């Protein structure tokens, strides 16, 4: 078992390049099932979740090979419409292959997806979309099957702007006959990247990034080249590092338009944020100001950033609050931060943080992916040694996180334990 050890590091300084976004790469990898020619992807992050998705594709008969920094994928000869239970149980995003399989093969059999235990993320909206497009959906013994002799376009209204459901329905509708209209869609940048990728393959999608998306079905999709957008959550995490340590960090390969709520909160905290095209420089100051956060679907403040920002707020001079509206069980990191001396009170979906807490190195657990990032940030300013367990969660979403923090001067290392 591996652990991450963090010690107080002083102001972090330097520059790093932000790699491709996990939450863009995963649906795009699933969408590769729709193509019948070579697809070349660049900036696919080397993460555990990506490895699992590639394994899922290979189990279905997809050819995947690495060519330097590129991944070449060919799904011309699919051999299966049924996914591997063991792989599916490891990662929620693996459910995104169901729509493409249904579109390509007329049938898909999936087990219920796994992932971080941050709250209820029902798949009913995915299934609602499949049914609306003409599929017959059945659920038996933990498996879900969908079958359609012919997919027919339809108008679909989502009860909630679910990112996963929006992605799955878009992918399914690309090969449906007629024009599909999806309303109350998720607007995340990763949705836009997926639509851009599919359009390069020959799909006809308009409106991605707005609440209404139109997909005019085509008979088949070809191959293409596509570079994955940079990861706005990884970028946000590394922006907090200089803010919490009083450092000075330059981040390269950033799409600042995707990060407006994050940049605004950093400035509200008192950090200096300098934007220059695809670069962002964050300079931390001695005083960190308290502020309030309310997580919302995009373009609101991203739920994935509230845990790292909670670490920052433990050092703010005054009382702050975070209201979580997206997931009902996403304050598990609060208990871990409290082990380090943070003063946090959680009531239902609101966390009150009394800042300027003296943090002490402790043995803590990465209860989920973003919680692990928050604990690393807290460890940078805690007295003594912070020992973080269950770091497999962190590895699911941060590529070479230890090495990148080391490049900025952090006293951080990964160790093997019995």
From TrEMBL:
Statement: the UniProt record of this protein carries the keyword Protein biosynthesis: no
Residue stretches in coiled coil: none
Active-site residues (renumbered): 116
Annotated catalysed reactions: phosphoenolpyruvate + UDP-N-acetyl-alpha-D-glucosamine = UDP-N-acetyl-3-O-(1-carboxyvinyl)-alpha-D-glucosamine + phosphate
Binding residues annotated for phosphoenolpyruvate, in chain numbering: 22-23
UniProt key word Iron-sulfur: no
Protein name: UDP-N-acetylglucosamine 1-carboxyvinyltransferase
InterPro entries: Enolpyruvate_Tfrase_dom, Enolpyruvate_Tfrase_sf, MurA_subfamily, RNA3'P_cycl/enolpyr_Trfase_a/b, UDP_GlcNAc_COvinyl_MurA
Major subcellular location class: cytoplasm
Gene: murA
